[in-house]
Predict the 3D structure of the following.
Amino acid sequence: MTLFEFVSVAVSIVLALSAGQILLNLREVFDPNRRYWVHAVWVVQALIIHVLVWWSLWAYRDIQWDLASFVLVLVPAGVLFVMSSALVPNSSSTVTSWEAHFFEVRRWFFAARILFIIGAGFRSWFLLEKPILESPTPVSQLILVLLIAGILIANRRFQGVLAVVTSVLLVFVAYVRLEAGAG
């Protein structure tokens, strides 16, 4: 087993636990009696991000591995786990309204997503030596600004627009990353 395979297994385990947290509760998220469409959009985005994180791991296959590089690759997956746990808690069956839950955890969720983008950008800059202004990418930088606005603005209409706009931007990022190993 190579060091890359060893690292990719560790990251895959964290991603699987995180995605599993969401998938185990997907039925409750889409329960018509409790569903909130904005929350559901963020949940779907989180699942897409899991796929993108796993897919982008291939870009790190040729780096020189040490403990620091292992931690830098593992941190975004760990932050994604925190983000997913905020969106969909273990005890989701006790959530009576996903709308109320979303507005209760929205700051934690957006803060984790911001930390995720910054961590992923720092990882690309440090390990792949991408220029600092390209890590995160300009689209990710725009998403970052929108997420900061999401922390500051609790307006329900704004939160809906934010979910839709970031979804479009995420689909664009996913399209760009269809090439295997795009870091």
